[in-house]
Structure formats: structure tokens, C-alpha cells
DNA sequence: ACCAACTAACTATGCACATAGATAGTGGCG
DNA sequence: CGCCACTATCTATGTGCATAGTTAGTTGGT
């Protein structure tokens, strides 16, 4: 149910087409909420039907056309209401930790590989998020700059501060996951010290 | 797709009915993977059809009956194969951080409430997980004890060690989330120092 | 003139999961 | 005896999301 609010967040800056939003998901919101275009287009139509958005037909080239969505007052209200409502948290469902709990079933080398994948995955995320922080600090994010341009000067600090705060939390989380998996690698080495990886030659 | 592996993990210890598994989900695996009974029962039937489980009709009282599932060799193999396969990670989708990124839209008091809810949520999880660690250390987990009883002595350390490792990681993660939200509270106070919460009386 | 890469949008299928409710038997307590 | 909490299972409906494929126009380069 968060997709529509991610969309409203972007549309609160300026009108956009479904494709714009899809692209923007890769570049900005996508770092906290990913969505494929096949989910975005129908959601936009639904939101228009519910009066949160106004759709406008725009010609493009000779015969091409696209639909540009504007946020309505009802849309702004819906977004603000969501922001003022405390989130419901869902139940834990964590494949990586489920696997970790039964790692004795895996071959030592497969267990290590799992830990390495965990490190790699979170290293990648960490990089993206750090990059995002740098963009915020150096005003190099197009979307954020446009948002700031339409924000009263007195509130600009807050807009930047909350985004920075968000990504800082994610970077720390990634660090924690990386450290955890490194401990995992050490633990595996320790537990199989007398019985090296199945495909590894035993020492003489 | 992880549900079936969580079920196989439990059934690798001993045969159980759907209801047993449902209960066990609340007490052990549920701490890393939650599932409602309405998802468990049909999955068990599917797994039986695929040959991963054997179902056995058991009478219970006068007219009552229940179905007890045994893991088959194919089931053990499927679980081991999954354990030896590196996980695919899914895209980021994090409602709490999505909201955090746009917190300037919320009333200060609502923003604080969101942070408090985050702290409360992760404090609850932290407690569960710490409890789990204590149970592991003191051999007070029924399920784990039964698993250990059926495990060769040489491998018992590993079984416990991986579980401990898993929950330690989750505890650290919870700590990190709590710290983050506390920073959030401090940040909100700082950013609205000149403009206290909307419903609060201004100082004379 | 043509092709590749991009813009733009839509459709289809299926699983995973949340939520809610239905049905029926059991065991114990007062 | 009647009631309640628990055991046990199943059904139904809707949303969210992944994955994959389709159609059509545009732009820029060789």
C-alpha cells in the first residue's frame, strides 16, 4: 500500500508521466521503495479514478502521446494524512536469517558463499545510499533540487535533513549486515576447522 | 518461496501436524519467518503432492482426526539443496524509511510518534530475540533440544552456534534501528526548536 | 535509409500473503 | 450438563508483487 504514497511524494514536486515516475524510481525513491512499471501504470489510473491525480493528455512528436499526471488537493491531503498516521509494522519474514539459522545443513563452502553474497548485496546497497548522501550534501540531485525550489526557504533545511537522516540509517544498517556476515565467515571457519570444505583437499 | 523450507526445517526434527507447525511458528521459526495457518495447511498438501512429505491420518479422541506429516528423502534433499543454493535478494521495499525520507510533511508530533513506534516495535523484537538466545544457551528450547537429540554429538555445537549467530545479528540490527529512531527524535526536536508541535501551546 | 536505443504504456499469469470467517471435535471446569 | 478454551482444518477474497511479454512511436547515429 506504500506504492501510491511513493508516487504522491514524487508528484508533489511536479507533474509527471508514468514513464517519468518509473525512471525516477530507479534514481531516487527506488532506493527505499522499488516498483516495476507494470505496477506503476495501473496504480496511476486507479489513483486518477479516486481523484488523487488529474491526468492530462500530452502530444509528443508527430503521433506520439503520453499522459501526464498532476497531483490534486485530495492527493496532497491523502499524502499528508498518510504521513501523519503511524505505520503498522508487518511480521518478520527474513529469508537470509531463516537460512542462517539452519546453516549446519549447508556444505561449508556453500555456507561461506551465502555469507559472501550477503556482504556483496549489502555492500552494493551501501554504495548506492552513500552516493545518495553525497548528492544531497552537494545539491546534485535533480529531483531534490526541484523539490527545494518549490519549498519555502525556512523549510528547506528540514527537507534535506530528513533525507540525509534516512540514508544515514540505511548505511549503518548495511554496515551492520556486512559485519554480521563477516562474523559468519569467521564462525564457519572455526566450526569446520577440523573438517575443511567438502571440495577442499585435507592438509597432510 | 521460503515457507516450505521453514516447514521442512521443522519437519526434519520429527513428524508434525499442520497445527503443530502453526504453533511452532509462533514459538521458534516464527521469529525469523511468520506464517498464518491459512498459508501452512495448503502448502503442506502441495508438498505432499510433490513428494516432499508423507501424510499419515491419526485419530484423536473418539471421532477427531488429524494429519501428521513426515519428511521424505526427497524432502530432506530439497531442503539440503535449498541450503546449498545462494539466496536471491529482492529489491528494497522499506515503508519506515520511505516515510522517514518525507518526514517534513508530517506534523512534528506525528513525526515523533512514528519514531517512537519504530523504537517500540524494534524493542519488542529485540526482547524476543534476546529471549531466544537465552533459551539456546540454557537448553530451554523444546524444539532445539529435540533437534539436538537427533544430531550426532560432533555436530551439536554447530547447530547451536548458527542459531545463536542468527539471533545475535537480529539483536544488533534491532539496536541499530532503535538508535536510528532516537537520532530521529533528536533531529525533530532540533529542526522544530523555533516552532513547537502544532497542538502545543507556544511559550510566552 | 535504416537500425538501435530509448520513450511510453499496457496486458497476462501466478504466487505470496493478509484477513476473515466457517466448521467440527476435544477436554476440563463448575 | 453446559460452556469455554483449545485443537484441527479449510475456504474465500483481495492486494501486492514478480516476471515476462506486447505494441507503437521517437530520436540520433552511421
Describe the protein.
Two copies of one chain form a homodimer. The first copy, chain A, has 204 residues and is mainly α. The first copy, chain A, is 62% helix and 9% strand. Chain A is built from eight helices and three strands; from the N terminus they run αβααββααααα. A three-stranded antiparallel sheet of chain A has the order 1-3-2. In chain A, helix 2 (18-27) packs across helix 3 (37-49) and helix 6 runs antiparallel to helix 8 (153-191). Chain A is elongated. In chain A, 29% of the residues are buried. The model of chain A is unreliable at 197-204 (pLDDT under 50). At the A-B interface, helix 1, helix 4, helix 5, helix 6 and helix 8 of A face helix 1, helix 4, helix 5, helix 6 and helix 8 of B. The first copy, chain A, binds a DNA duplex (30 and 30 nucleotides) through residues 1, 3, 17-19, 22-23, 35-39, 41-42, 60-67, 90-91, 93.
Amino acid at each position: 500500500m506504500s506504492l501510491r504514497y511513493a508516487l504522491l511524494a514524487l508528484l508533489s514536486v511536479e507533474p509527471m508521466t508514468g514513464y517519468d515516475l518509473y525512471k525516477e524510481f530507479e534514481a531516487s525513491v527506488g532506493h527505499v521503495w522499488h516498483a516495476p512499471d507494470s505496477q506503476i501504470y495501473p496504480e496511476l489510473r486507479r489513483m486518477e479514478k479516486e481523484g488523487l491525480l488529474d491526468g492530462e493528455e500530452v502530444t509528443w512528436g508527430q503521433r506520439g502521446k503520453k499522459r501526464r499526471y498532476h497531483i490534486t488537493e485530495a492527493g496532497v491531503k491523502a499524502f499528508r494524512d498518510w504521513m501523519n498516521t503511524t505505520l503498522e509494522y508487518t511480521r518478520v519474514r527474513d529469508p537470509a536469517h531463516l537460512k542462517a539459522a539452519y546453516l549446519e545443513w549447508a556444505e561449508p563452502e556453500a555456507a561461506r558463499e551465502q555469507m559472501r553474497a550477503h556482504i556483496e548485496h549489502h555492500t552494493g546497497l551501501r554504495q548506492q545510499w552513500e552516493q545518495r548522501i553525497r548528492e544531497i550534501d552537494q545539491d546534485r540531485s535533480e529531483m531534490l533540487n526541484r523539490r527545494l525550489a518549490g519549498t519555502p526557504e525556512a523549510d528547506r533545511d528540514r527537507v534535506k535533513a530528513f533525507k540525509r537522516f534516512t540514508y544515514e540509517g540505511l548505511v549503518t544498517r548495511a554496515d551492520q549486515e556486512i559485519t554480521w556476515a563477516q562474523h559468519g565467515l569467521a564462525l564457519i571457519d572455526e566450526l569446520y576447522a577440523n573438517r575443511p570444505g567438502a571440495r577442499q583437499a585435507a592438509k597432510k
